[in-house]
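Page 47, continued from p. 46.
Same chain as before, 256 aa.
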Amino acid sequence: MISKTHSVQVIRGVTIVTVESGALSMTTMTKLLRNAQADAVLDLALQQRIGAELVFGAKAALAAYRATNPPVCEAIQHLVAEATLRFSGPAMEEIRAYLEGYDRGASADALLQATSGVQCAGRHPSATPSDSSDFGRCLRLYLACSVVRENFGAAEVFQQWDSAMKKLWHATLAEAGRDTNNSIVSARPGTGIPWERFAEPYEWSKFGLTVVADRHLPNGRRQHLVTGRVHPTLALCDADIFGEDDEAPITKDCPN
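Result:
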């Protein structure tokens, strides 16, 4: 149903459009966006949190408005109330943080619903990740929410994921030292995501290392493979370092 009435508020440089029922027509939406300032962007996450039909503004203004911790909409309040009937303590706070946060998506909502029973997926209970952004939201939810980790193995929605996404999921968790049942597993540098070997080794003279391969994890973390052995958990200049002859990566600050 197309809404015939809408209200527009501008708060701290952020334009918030709401309707009492129905949805904005494309003509009205286009007109509103056409009048926006040149550097304005849409904020779908903020829009969902406060229950607005449209939210846009300059990135700095949106960030400033988010920082005021605007109240969540009634729909999210109902979801939180539903969750409190099932969970308490840290588990409940983890779920609340997700529901009230700015990192929600259809596939992550479906994952939370499948593992917690909280009916947050709406009309998309079987939504699956279709790109790296969707995948990242699911991964961050998994890592942040104990209920999701504990029940992930039995979640049917994961079985509906695309085979490439499943493969990437298993590889990513292997790199984190966990499997899909949240058990600790081996994280040898040669498993999971493949290394991209250089045609010629790179001499990282600052650290006395020879880099032979490189790779990026889905979360953006970079990793280098070097000749020889290194000690556990080495990170240099925001990159994890692995030795060809060892299982684990050293921690050292990057020189100035």
